[in-house]
Design a protein that fits this description.
alpha/beta; globular; 36% helix
Length: 212
């Protein structure tokens, strides 16, 4: 198990959230001192985590194109919207991590999109740019959970690597709960690459069904 440095809570502020489909929920945003990577990650407290037997937690990597602009090339925006509601109902935390493009940054992500338009999958595009397939490190996420007093979680994720990293960092993952499938004709190749390359638990329908 990896020993991680201590982080502390910096600020807590109440923020009502409103989504484009009309869904709204109250939240508390938490900032931190001492995060290992120096990034401004946020914890979003939803529902009543203290009342949950095990809090439901999602590690959501920032995606400007999907979260803000509604890009159909990925499933990030719909996953964020789904996670907020499910966590609010159960009680838990959404950790919003500043790891655009699986850790490569916004400009590099858009460069990778250009290569994907030429036929590469998302992982091959990163490699061709000389970048890691997935450069994300969840040390800061484990620090945030520790600062919040959380040592055991139900993890809302299709990605087995997130659970593996959290366990190595000392967080007990009681269960990994898959998100819904948010497939469209625009993101099916992207999602299929995640299933085939990194064993994401996403049950994909054939493209013909999505097109129909």
């Amino acid at each position: 198990m990896t020993v991680i440095p201590e982080a502390t809570v910096r600020t807590r502020v109440r923020v009502p959230l409103r989504f484009g489909d009309g869904y709204s929920v109250d939240s508390e945003l938490v900032t931190f001192h001492g995060l290992a990577d120096g990034q401004e990650h946020l914890a979003v407290v939803l529902g009543d985590p203290d009342a949950a037997v095990t809090p439901l937690v999602r590690l959501h990597s920032e995606c400007l194109t999907g979260d803000v602009f509604g890009s159909a090339r990925c499933d990030c925006g719909p996953q964020l919207r789904e996670a907020v509601e499910r966590i609010a109902e159960h009680g838990g935390y959404l950790l919003y991590l500043r790891q655009e493009g699986r850790g490569i940054g916004l400009y590099n992500k858009l460069d990778a999109y250009a290569l994907q338009d030429q036929g590469r999958d998302t992982y091959a595009a990163n490699t061709e740019l000389g970048l890691p397939e997935d450069g994300r490190d969840y040390t800061a996420a484990a620090q945030m959970l520790a600062a919040l007093g959380v040592d055991t979680v139900d993890l809302l994720s299709n990605n087995p690597d997130k659970a593996a990293q959290l366990r190595e960092l000392g967080v007990s993952v009681r269960d990994r709960v898959p998100t819904g499938v948010h497939a469209t004709p625009h993101n099916l190749r992207y999602l299929r690459a995640k299933v085939e390359h990194t064993q994401h638990t996403i049950a994909l329908a054939p493209l013909s069904e999505l097109a129909g």
